[in-house]
Amino acid sequence: MKEKSEERNELQINRGKKPNQKLKPYLVLQFLLRETDENNVVTADDIVAYLNEIGIDAERRSVYKDIEEINKATWMIENGKTLQEAEEAIADEEERLVIFDPHRKKKGFYVRQRRYDLNDIRLLAECVYSAKFIPQAQADRLAAIVSDFVSRHQAEKIRNNALVIDRVKTVNKSVLNNISLINDAMATMLDGSPHKPQKISFQYLAYEIGNLDKPTERRTKYIVSPFYLVIDAGNYYLLAFDNINQKRRTFRVDRMKNVCFVDEPREGAEAFANLDVETFMQRTFSMYSGERTRVKMRFITKKLLNTVIDRFGRRGVIYEKVDDDHFYVTADVEVSNQFFGWICGFGRMAKIISPEPVVKKFEEFLDKIREMY
Q1: Residue 285: exposed, middle, or buried by beta-carbon count in 10 A (0-12, 13-18, 19+)?
Q2: Can you state the angle between helices 118-130 and 152-161, rounded to 10 degrees?
Q3: pTM above threshold 0.90
Q4: Which residues contact 146 (CB under 8 A, 6 or more apart)?
Q5: Helix, strand and coil percent figures for the chain, each rounded to 5
Q6: Cα–chain-centroid distance for residue 166?
Q7: pLDDT, tens digit, 9 for 90 and up, residues 95-122
């Protein structure tokens, strides 16, 4: 009889409670995380209005209690301490997640301590946007994910102020999947079990001067042994061993389509045994710094169109068809000996057209080389 009486009393007490009250502290915390930061506060009335708007009855006193419980709970979780220790700790304002600031025109609450600060998240968002190998839609999605760690106001500031330099984005939506698959192919442990690195196959996208917006798949299927994934100037590259030609090759990951595992062990380890990857990347891709100048160049189309687009991208670059065999490209270039060396590497397949001062500098560069022989 005593147990039944206690059950009836508890039911009567619960009937007197307002519905969904157990959700309230969580919703208050999410509202504070989204709406507040060091420069933006909300009042208890703002919080009550928000709760009422979503169908939860609340009053100012209960909001104050919720914030106190939030501070205790977050301190306990982050420090692995007891409730009593948390109550003692948050007596010091410096230990609280949510604080009340009475020293501004609009007095109110805000979330002060976060796992990441605004500069951390801004840097991550800028890295995402400056990575050319990430398609635009995925870049926006990833930036939105990291922006969840700051307030709504800070997230908007990040979107508006992101330093999007040379934002030439790939149109290949499978890039991130390609990267994951290549990493798995190179792994020595996979899904918790030993794994022998294996070959991969793929098709490589090629550009046509008449339709630069839609690269097409080459019919040739490449089979290579992957060894390194590296990032240079915002692009992802695969360093691999070409099993047919028996040499190292470099591929742009965003131009790889239909990447698949090949059930054969990786070959070519000796070709990479003594490779200094950083030095190799500098020699292969770096133009180093020089005087930035708008330069017009002519190249042989079939041989070099893809190489030139990989180097200069599309944004702010002009491509013009000269005839069936040649095209012009006009781009901003860091004019330096390294740039001239890059041009020399194409022999008679490339020529600097203008401006005249750059042509003269290139001639002087060639003359100095001739003097050595």
Answers
A1: middle
A2: 40
A3: no
A4: 121, 124, 125, 128
A5: 45, 25, 25
A6: 14
A7: 999 999 888 888 899 998 677 778 788 8
